[in-house]
Amino acid sequence: QAYLSYSNIAALTHLARKPGWDITKTLDNIRIWTHEEGAVLSFKVEMQVKVPSHVAFSLLSDFSLRQRWDRHFLTCKVLQAVSEEEKIYHVTSAPMTGHQPRDFVVLVSQRQPCRPQEPYTVAVRSVTLRTVPPSPEFCRSEILCAGFQIHSNSSSSCTVCYFNQVTSGVMPYLAANLTGSSKSIEDTALECIKFLE
C-alpha cells in the first residue's frame, strides 16, 4: 500500500512536469492543455479560483463531494480508509449514449506541500480490490493517472490544475470534447470553480 500511494503521487507529479503541453483553449479563468505521447493522450485543465489553496484542497480531496460538481460521477462511496491520506472509493458514472455505465475502483492519495512553493496534491489511480469484483451491470474502467495540483497564488486565491491521462475507458467522455463539439470539460471546470467558491 505504501508503494501504491507513493507511485500514485509520483505519477501525477511526473505527468504535471512533462514538457510539450499544448494549449487548446483559453477562457476567462480556465485554460485547457493537451499532451500526446504515442497512444496516450493527457489533458490538463487549469482553473483560477478565488479561495485559499488549503480550502480547495480539503474540498477536492474528499471524493464523496465530487458529485456536487462533476455530473460524470453518479455515485461515489468509500470502500476503505487506508490511512488519513489514502482512501479507496467505488465510483459509478452515468452511461454515455451507446455505452454501458462505467465503474471505477480508485485509490485517492492526498498530500500537503512540504515546502511553501510546492502544490497540494490529490492523486487518483485505479486499483484492484478482491471484495469489489467487476459486475455485469457496469463496464469496469481504469484510470491510469489523474488528479489535482493546487498552487497558492495569494491568501485568498489559488490555481487548481486537473490532470487526466486518458485511456480508452475514459475516451468516450472526452472524444467529443477535444474535437470541440462538446463543452463538457469547460462546463465541468466552471461547475468546479462555482463549487469551490
From TrEMBL:
The UniProt entry, under SUPFAM superfamilies, shows: Bet v1-like
InterPro entries per the record? START-like_dom_sf, START_lipid-bd_dom, START_lipid_transfer
Q: Locate the START domain: which residues? A: 16-166
Query: Per its UniProt record, what Pfam families does this chain match?
Result: START
Q: Give the domain of life.
A: Eukaryota
Could you list the residue ranges forming a coiled coil in this record? none
Q: Which GO terms describe its molecular function?
A: lipid binding
Q: Which GO terms describe its cellular component?
A: cytoplasm
| PANTHER family in alphabetical order | PHOSPHATIDYLCHOLINE TRANSFER PROTEIN, START DOMAIN-CONTAINING PROTEIN
Name the record gives this protein: ACO12 thioesterase
